[in-house]
Each structure stands twice: as structure tokens, then as C-alpha cells.
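Inverse folding, one chain.
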């Protein structure tokens, strides 16, 4: 029980990556590594918005059909056991293809994010360390981990759509399986920004 609470606290504490230039810097850095798995991890994480456990549980057969990357993937979330469908956009597909093209042989029954220590999946703890270490090496200030990928996905959907689609927060709430819109706003760090803007706009 203590371990579960610790993980929840850690997930809530990490931040989304809000700066687009930082995202580009991270992608370029990971792209420069010989093993493209971590690049695929980052790109998929910020483009599909899955929890880390669900992302790392993906099997190759779930995203490939006769060698072609599928448009839509269906999973059952580990935490909620709810059915979740998500689409693979152009960036996600390109990252997957880049990684698969580096493999000598594609095993449809293997995990997409294989551990380098065996045939099992990359663990959440290992993925957390990859993200945290990468951002530290790039001197990107803040508290980041695997949950930052999901938060980054949600944050940028919100800021890119709120002006033209005021109901986007309700859509995000459903996508993230949150109990309320206020929970979603707090989750992606918007509440603090809004409060800060209110204070800064007041000059009596």
C-alpha cells in the first residue's frame, strides 16, 4: 500500500513538458542514439496519452497488421479495466517504423518496448529513469518522469484547442478517464497558470 501511494504522489508531482522547443530538443537527442526504442517511447508517450504501464504493455501485434502499422489501437487499461481506443498519428507511426526498421526480425508476439535485459517489457521504473535522465542531461529544468509524457499529451491538446473549442476540457476528461474537468485542469497544471495570470493582470 505504501508503494502504491508513493507512485501516486510521484505521478502527481511530475510536470508536463510545456515548451515546444524542449520537446524538439529531446526528440533530436534521442534520435541521435543508436537504439531508437527510447525515441519511440518518448514520441508515442506524448502522442497517445497512455499511462506508462499501458504503453509499455503494448505488444507488436497490437500495432502491426501484415507489416503495416494500424491506424487505431484498442486496449483495456490496466488501472481502470476500461476499454480504450486511440489513434496513431503521423508522428507516432514514423517513430514506430523507424524503430522496427532497425530490428533484424520483427516478433509479433514480443513487447513493443522490449527490455535490453531479456524478452520482457521495459519496466515503468526503467522508463521513468530514461525520461528523467534525458531531461537532466539536456538541462531542462523541472520534475519529470514517465507520467510527464501523458501530461504533455493532455497539456498540448488543451492549449492548442481551447481558443477554438471551449469544450475540449470535457473531451480530455473522457480521454483521461478523470472524474471531473477540474481534476483534468489540475492534472495538466492549468489551474496554477490561470491563477497566476489573474494575479498578474491586476494592477490597482
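Residues assigned per position:
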Amino acid at each position: 500500500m505504501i508503494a502504491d501511494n508513493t507512485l501516486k504522489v510521484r505521478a502527481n508531482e511530475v510536470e508536463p513538458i510545456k515548451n515546444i522547443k524542449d520537446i524538439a530538443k529531446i526528440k533530436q537527442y534521442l534520435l541521435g542514439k543508436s537504439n531508437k526504442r527510447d525515441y519511440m517511447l518518448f514520441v508515442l508517450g506524448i502522442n497517445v496519452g497512455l499511462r506508462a504501464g499501458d504503453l509499455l504493455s503494448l505488444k507488436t501485434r497490437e500495432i502491426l497488421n501484415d507489416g503495416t502499422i494500424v491506424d487505431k489501437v484498442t486496449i483495456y487499461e490496466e488501472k481502470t479495466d476500461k476499454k480504450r481506443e486511440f489513434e496513431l498519428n503521423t508522428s507516432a507511426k514514423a517513430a514506430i517504423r523507424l524503430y522496427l526498421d532497425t530490428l533484424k526480425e520483427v516478433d509479433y508476439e514480443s513487447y513493443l518496448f522490449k527490455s535490453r535485459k531479456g524478452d520482457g517489457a521495459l519496466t515503468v521504473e526503467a522508463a521513468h529513469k530514461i525520461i528523467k535522465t534525458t531531461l537532466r542531461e539536456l538541462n531542462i529544468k523541472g520534475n519529470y518522469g514517465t507520467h510527464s509524457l501523458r501530461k504533455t499529451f493532455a497539456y498540448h491538446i488543451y492549449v492548442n484547442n481551447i481558443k477554438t473549442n471551449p469544450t475540449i476540457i470535457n473531451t480530455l476528461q473522457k480521454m483521461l478517464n478523470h472524474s471531473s474537468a477540474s481534476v483534468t485542469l489540475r492534472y495538466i497544471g492549468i489551474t496554477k497558470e490561470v491563477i497566476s495570470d489573474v494575479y498578474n493582470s491586476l494592477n490597482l
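Strands lie at 64-65, 68-69, 72-76, 83-87. The mean pLDDT is 90.
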